[in-house]
Amino acid sequence: MPQKRRELVSTFVAADATGRKVIVQYYRELALQPPVAGQPDQWAPTGTTTLVTEDGRDVKRKSQGVYEIASVRGASVLTSSDPDAP
Prior knowledge:
Layout: E1 4-15, E2 21-32, E3 43-53, E4 58-63, E5 66-69, E6 76-79
Antiparallel strand pairs: 1-2, 2-3, 3-4, 4-5, 5-6
């Protein structure tokens, strides 16, 4: 199995229905490519992306600018018009 790592693509602000702002981090997964003699390590995107809040909670993308965070009180919907929001 190839070695993998996450790379931060962007950070954006989203808000819930009450206006509480949440910082969301957008990551993409990279996989180490087979070595080539004399070349530095090469990492390539796998196509997998992840959204998490600044404090580490998973964020589910519903559509462009609309997200959901699950909690013990139920799902919280977040929205963002930030141009960096996927």
